[in-house]
């Protein structure tokens, strides 16, 4: 398995899974956060899929939420929680239907 994956590799995973609805702003944010999160996850046994999943499901909704209009803290928190949960379900469903994990293990 390849070491030292890049943000482009992570975006490639999203593309492979058909999660291609990212805006340019989200792709930029994904690129910006990749290095730190990948390094942190790698030191804890993380890998390409885990880092991609974390950024797509947890980090990107934060960037989206910061640009959503005003609202009280509770409603923003609930909206963020729903978005994160929805993304986790969709990512995991698509990953489960793919053979990506097996492909990466052989690489």
Can you walk through the features of this model?
With 107 residues, this protein is mostly helical. It has one domain. Helices cover 74% and strands 0% of the residues. The longest helix is centred in the C-terminal third of the chain and has 25 residues, at 73-97. The N and C termini lie close together (5 Å).
Highlighted features:
mainly alpha; 107 residues; 5 helices
Percentage of residues in helical conformation:
over 70%
Largest sheet, described in full? Answer: none
When the domains are counted, the total is 1
How many helices? The count is: 5
| CA(first)-CA(last) distance | 5 Å
The class by helix and strand makeup works out as mainly alpha
Give me the strand/helix succession.
Answer: HHHHH
As residue ranges, the low-confidence spans are: none
The total strand number stands at 0
Strand content: under 5%
From the alpha carbons, calculate the radius of gyration and give it in angstroms. 14 Å
| Backbone shape | globular
Provide a short characterization of the protein structure.
The chain has 107 residues and is an all-alpha fold. It is 74% helix and 0% strand.
Topology, element by element:
Blueprint: H1 7-16, H2 24-42, H3 48-65, H4 73-97, H5 100-106
């Amino acid at each position: 398995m390849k070491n030292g994956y890049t943000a482009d590799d992570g975006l490639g995973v999203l593309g492979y899974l058909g999660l291609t609805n990212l805006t340019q702003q989200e792709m930029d944010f994904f690129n910006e956060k990749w290095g730190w999160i990948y390094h942190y996850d790698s030191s804890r046994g993380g890998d390409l899929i885990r880092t991609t999943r974390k950024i797509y499901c947890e980090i990107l909704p934060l960037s989206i939420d910061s640009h959503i209009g005003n609202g009280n803290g509770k409603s923003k928190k609930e909206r963020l929680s729903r978005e994160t949960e929805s993304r986790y379900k969709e990512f995991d469903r698509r990953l489960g239907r793919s053979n990506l994990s097996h492909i990466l293990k052989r690489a």
